């Protein structure tokens, strides 16, 4: 198994036919699984230790036939759809998010660190390791949750 360096090319993340549903009574993510999320903010000084945290708006996404079956053709432009309600705002400490990938406008995927994602979402330029012309785009994420903690965030290119 090799080491992945900052901005190494990585495969496009596989998406399930549906991400985990959101429990309307939940205040946090409790089930392990894959969740659909928009990264809405980053707090660079979230606690006394000053560890940054990501704020995700988490909902359920459906793909291909599962989307058509549940949302109909009108609810599935570009072969996917998002169930807007219920949704949940989730704070994820950057230090817990061990795996991060981003998708460029040209549909190429790159491995980055949580610290690099903090920089990008905060409006800073990408580090020198970024490919020429790379710019962060706010595509949605497929979050991997284990024991209620976001451990990976893989950005998904969508049209």
SSE string, helix = H, strand = E? EEEHEEEHEE
Based on helices, strands and strand pairing, what is the structural class?
A: mainly beta
Which residues form runs of ≥5 with pLDDT under 50?
A: none
Q: Please give the alpha-carbon distance between the first and last residues.
A: 33 Å
Main beta sheet, described?
8 strands, mixed
Number of strands: 8
Q: Order of strands in the sheet with the most strands?
A: 1-6-5-8-7-2-3-4
Roughly what is the average pLDDT, rounded to an integer? Answer: 92
The percent of residues in helical segments reads 10-25%
Q: Over the alpha carbons, how many angstroms does the gyration radius reach?
A: 16 Å
Helices, by number, come to 2
Description:
The chain is mostly beta strands. Helix content is 10%, strand content 38%. It has 2 helices and 8 strands. An 8-stranded mixed β-sheet has the order 1-6-5-8-7-2-3-4. Strand 5 and strand 6 form a beta hairpin. The radius of gyration is 16 Å and the shape is globular. The protein starts with 8 loop residues before the first strand and ends with a strand. The mean pLDDT is 92.
